[in-house]
Amino acid sequence: xxxxxxxxxxxxxxxxxxxxxxxxxxxxxxxxxxxxxxxxxxxxxxxxxxxxxxxxxxxxxxxxxxxxxxxxxxxxxxxxxxxxxxxxxxxxxxxxxxxxxxxxxxxxxxxxxxxxxxxxxxxxxxxxxxxxxxxxxxxxxxxxxxxxxxxxxxxxxxxxxxxxxxxxxxxxxxxxxxxxxxxxxxxxxxxxxxxxxxxxxxxxxxxxxxxxxxxxxxxxxxxxxxxxxxxxxxxxxxxxxxxxxxxxxxxxxxxxxxxxxxxxxxxxxxxxxxxxxxxxxxxxxxxxxxxxxxxxxxxxxxxxxxxxxxxxxxxxxxxxxxxxxxxxxxxxxxxxxxxxxxxxxxxxxxxxxxxxxxxxxxxxxxxxxxxxxxxxxxxxxxxxxxxxxxxxxxxxxxxxxxxxxxxxxxxxxxxxxxxxxxxxxxxxxxxxxxxxxxxxxxxxxxxxxxxxxxxxxxxxxxxxxxxxxxxxxxxxxxxxxxxxxxxxxxxxxxxxxxxxxxxxxxxxxxxxxxxxxxxxxxxxxxxxxxxxxxxxxxxxxxxxxxxxxxxxxxxxxxxxxxxxxxxxxxxxxxxxxxxxxxxxxxxxxxxxxxxxxxxxxxxxxxxxxxxxxxxxxxxxxxxxxxxxxxxxxxxxxxxxxxxxxxxxxxxxxxxxxxxxxxxxxxxxxxxxxxxxxxxxxxxxxxxxxx
Length: 690
Prior knowledge:
Blueprint: E1 8-12, H1 47-59, H2 68-86, E2 100-106, E3 110-120, E4 123-132, E5 139-145, H3 157-167, E6 172-176, H4 194-199, H5 204-221, E7 225-235, H6 237-245, E8 252-258, H7 264-270, H8 283-286, H9 289-294, E9 300-306, H10 314-330, E10 337-342, H11 350-365, H12 403-416, H13 425-442, E11 453-462, E12 465-475, E13 478-487, E14 496-500, H14 506-511, H15 514-519, E15 523-527, H16 539-549, H17 553-569, E16 577-583, H18 585-596, E17 600-609, H19 637-644, E18 649-655, H20 664-670, H21 672-680, E19 687-689
Helix pairs in contact: 1-7, 1-16, 3-11, 5-6, 17-18, 18-19, 19-21
């Protein structure tokens, strides 16, 4: 490979300083001098604003159908895309439930059966089935799911009250513990593990929805249940379950969703930070909430919300029900959808529970009126009562599957489809461009071409360096912080470096460490990819927001690295070569950038994640930034390395479970694929591991 004799640039994700006159040199403790946005984050550099506006741009293109025919033409794609977003396309096989009753208890007006069933082989669900006394059988039945009542799940006092209010109206109720709640609050089931699920094309919510669909399977298998009268209800996370399960299971004749329905538009803008359960990959590119409710028409649907709910703003609720109501009207069923409001904050309050009891009683028991039914004579019992426990030993059966084990199995299966190295260079030449296209696709698509530009914010000299603080525009209307540093008195350098990750701030990077050392000998660019450094926001909100937008934060940061490299390679109108240095998460960012299109002459990577398999562990110490939806369906880290071997790659440490460095033999095993590709392409000497 021919290297430009004049300039070889190393790209560091930091901001590079420009050295001012000595008398203007800042105090090393004055961080403001090193800031691209010293007066606070501006709108053009706010990654949260970028996410919100990007999602809203797609959502505001969702039109109301003008006719029933136009709506029915839209339905198949909506159902397909909803199932895909949940990770339920195709639906899992309906394997044996192996349901069993583990206990029974009698109460004043009902009896309760503790039930355990397997929604997937070895994936156990704990549930209670409440059967009213003195009713005609078979009776209607309702699946009830808890919200985020992590400690007690189905047995949380408010959820018991909601369940029993339905029982009192003559309905059988099956209440189950969602993943990570109640009796399923166990190692391997934590909600945050849903980030790892994304890597294998799964979601928390999709798995909970499948648990609910299998709950319906169990109910309709019972002799005491009328399979033609099945309902579903829930609050908050349980309301979310109602919202997503009902369109996928037409056996559900009536639903009541509390404290979840809104519009994606208003929820994303004003609702704030959320559990990963709420975020389906790319959903805002495909549909708005009114369309999801419309998929149920003409089956009965009730939304109930608090007007003071700050998570799901009431204006979004009203707009969604209005638009969904128009779809129900196209089906000649405008009275099959309704909404109730309570002047209260988020929560399954008594007015909402009473409204749900009235609504479901009307549609499932034949009660003439739909109005709320007063909640009287109902008392919740202690949530830890043995009579409400399905796992009598306090634990699941030996060998039970967990979210982690399911994800690990899927990872093995997906990686197995591409683990074999190509047989010859021709096969690789055909596969490599296809792989790049597939990677861009799961990253939300390659952004439109845009020439990056830099705006100088500050220039000063510091300890022999000329420091130039920049705002680097990487796509229309969006800037990241960057710092360019060069020796004040040094001769023209033939080395320039871009560093990604491994530092607390761009200023700190250039005051001490590898970037500082490199700047003494040549040009250094240090950047803050969006969502880090100066533009850091709540990471969960940024990551989950990127997921629903269909362009993961990781993918956006990869683009920032690509654009920084592109700018650096053409700085001052002279074409130069660029070297990248990445550490930790930054190492993976730099690797992806090189694999896709960044003009890197060389890669120096420290503590690189060896494989996404090592993300999938119970404590999940890896950053949630790395959760790129469905990536393992396309490629693993070794394949990304192979796509980048056109440039020499020096890896200082591969990282495995617990963020610990892998031993030499295991590291070499992880590099077998890229080494095979390097050999096919005559670059075997370029891939080095320490």
